[in-house]
Amino acid sequence: QLIDKGNHxxxxxxxxxxxxxxxxxxxxxxxxxxxxxxxxxxxEFDLSTIKRVTIVACGTSFYAGMVAKYWxxxxxxxAVDIDVASEFRYRAPVMEEGGLMIVISQxxxxxxxxxxxxxxxxxxxxxxxxxxxxxxxxxxxxxxLLPTHAGPxxxxxxxxxxxxxxxxxxxxxxxxxKAKGRLTSEEEREIVVxxxxxxxxxxxxxxxxxxxxxxxGAVAGARDVLYLGRGTDYPLALEGAxxxxxxxxxxxxxxxxxxxxxxxxALIDENVPVIVIAPSGPLFEKTVSxxxxxxxRGGKVVLIxxxxxxxxxxxxxxxxxxxxxxxxxxxxxxxxVPVQLLAYHVAVAKGTDVDQPRNLAKSVTVE
Length: 367
Ligand code: G6P
Description:
alpha/beta, five-stranded parallel sheet, 44% helix, globular, binds 6-O-phosphono-alpha-D-glucopyranose
């Protein structure tokens, strides 16, 4: 298979732009569009007895798992334990019988995640693996393979694998909810409709590229950047900070917006850009009030939201990235795009090696 950058300067840009297609490709395995039903690739797998879910992963894949925790709890009402693999494998985790362990990995080879998988298997857990490489070790050792169809990801910083993981995990949460009798057919139909909207919404989000490029200079000069979000946008804030530090080498932190007053607010001044991820939804007003606390202390805000005009109204607004309207279920998938593009353009502005950042490896197969 010939892999090139196409018309893009970097693999990362190409892979960001592939997301509408690869997410659609991935969802195809999990949705029956015509019947308006969700489905797993292995239909005989019985999810109804699952009492507890344990999610383990590293890096960007871990943040996909954090988003999924909100979905599993909300839709399926199943308790979820989540940890990074390097902690999980050494902390004597308690796994009840009948539990489902979900490992998430682009490569399917990350050493810590694989060790966690083997540990859980030995403890009698059923293993589901959300992996992008179907021939990988994790894919082979899992009981239930849940493939992402992102295609080869070359950029070291993960992008399209992340959104494909989210698509699979949303579908899995819906399947789990259904198996537990918690979804009416109308609710199931709505989930299918909203998930199916994701590729078009991703396309819309990509149309903000130029606007994001134009404001990247305002972030490129910073020494520290803070990302804030609530609910499923909290892991997205963590992912945004990770992307930025990975490829631009700017120190960045992601924080739960409501937790900001317990620490990071002390850092706020005019030199620390604060990226606020705030799609409209039940937590919108709460996040905006945290944003205003930042602005009141002289902090410069970049608001990523579909609520028109809101940031322009506030003082100390560096920029607004106006997003297309997206249903809350797919918002984490759609809002991944501006977060990735911002990191990308800041890194390009700084002249770093975007696809091969220093000290990082695409696949970490040693502990
Ligand atoms: C490395 C990569 C990241 C990736 C992480 C987990 O740190 O640089 O992009 O998110 O490993 O990799 P995995 O293949 O398990 O998803």
